[in-house]
């Protein structure tokens, strides 16, 4: 079956909530293909309006694969570096310099990862998780809590991902609670959930397969616990820096 076969099917009046509609499997397939294509078009338009042309182009490329019902051609390997810590930070820095918005940054980073050899891509995820573990402390959680005016478990993960995404220098500023250096970052929204899955997306684009799992890094929180009633007294400089009442 080709895309031309599905294009020739009339899906007028198809009811996706009616079991009777699914008795004609070809018609059902044609309808859901059209439904998916329209969703891609909506997403692409929204990204373009949001000022994310590179992400919109990625959606268009994926849409084309759905339209033609063909697997996307994997990116060729043009970067043969081993993915060690230096390369990890270099990839993040290059993507951040090219694309300043978070959506564009993650899209550019994913493209950079697909240019590596497939076996190197999982190493990015391992290095990322190791960097996240280095930020997994009560002190850094206090920073995230005060910065955002509250911070749950998931939001703390996204905060740590944001800190890594800003590069090695900001990562160290956050890790060491460098209050003076933090002053230049207070206008940012410190959340970046999509960085956590960028390696998986790149691996899937590169190989058409799911990235192999490996034992994750799940360390306990380091340092001295705090609670909401004591956090401002424990961290007065941070509390003053992120005073949301002003």
In brief:
With 246 residues, the protein is mainly alpha-helical. It contains 13 helices and no strands. 26% of the residues are buried.
Helix and strand layout, with pairings?
Blueprint: H1 3-7, H2 25-49, H3 53-68, H4 85-98, H5 102-114, H6 121-134, H7 138-148, H8 153-165, H9 168-175, H10 179-182, H11 198-207, H12 231-234, H13 236-241
Account of the protein in words:
The chain starts with a helix and ends in a 5-residue tail after the last helix. The protein is built from 13 helices and no strands. The chain has about 250 residues and is mostly helical. Helices cover about 60% and strands about 0% of the residues. The longest helix has 25 residues.
Uncertain segments: none
What characterizes the major β-sheet?
none
Overall shape: it is elongated
Q: Count of helices?
A: 13
- Total E-strand runs: 0
Please state the CA-atom Rg, rounded to the nearest Å.
Answer: 22 Å
Tell me roughly what share of residues is in helical segments.
Answer: 55-70%
Distance between the termini: 63 Å
What's the structural domain tally? Answer: 2
Assign the structural class, choosing from mainly alpha, mainly beta, alpha/beta, alpha+beta, or little secondary structure.
Answer: mainly alpha
Order of helices and strands: HHHHHHHHHHHHH
Binned strand content: under 5%
In round numbers, the mean pLDDT is 87
